[in-house]
Amino acid sequence: MSAEWSAGTTVVIALVLLAGLGVVHIWTTGVRAGRKVERQVREVTRLGRVAAGAAVTAVLIAVIQWAVVTNTSPNSAWVLVLGGPALLAGVTVGRLLAVTTVHRSGHHGRRAGARR
Fold it and tell me: How far is 99 from 43, CA to CA, in rounded Å?
């Protein structure tokens, strides 16, 4: 065995040490980190469903509006078809803005330093 270390050997040893540190870090973070990741994935999935539902609803409303506007002359039907969804969208945006100003992520009503 040679007493010289090659650059490749040094890199391999450094990578093994880093991998060992990573394993120790994962082991020490434990289940709590796993639950946190699970909640984050659940949140992203829920947001994806909400976004898909909003997109489908928007397309449906646009198709109905297009059908009414192209097949009728300007009258009260236009007010209902164009104004109704606009009013509902305004109310929804208002609610969303109200919710985001109240919600504080990560606090969950506990005092700092308190454990479960």
Answer: 16
**CA–CA dist 37, 99 (Å, integer):** 23
Please give the residue that has the higher pLDDT: either 74 or 28: 74
For residue 113, what is the enclosing H or E element? none
**Cα Rg for the chain, rounded, in angstroms?**
28
SS3 (DSSP) at 103: coil
From 89, 8, 80, 4, select the one nearest 54 (Cα to Cα).
89
Full-prediction pTM beyond 0.70? no
DSSP code at position 81: I
Domain boundaries, the chain: 10-102
Rounded CA separation 74/83 (Å): 13
b/e string for 17-55 if b means 16 or more Cβ within 10 A?
eeeeeeeeeeeeeeeeeeeeeeeeeeeeeeeeeeeeeee
- DSSP code, position 75: S
Q: For residue 77, give every residue at least 6 positions away whose Cβ sits within 8 Å of its Cβ, in sequence order, or none.
A: 68
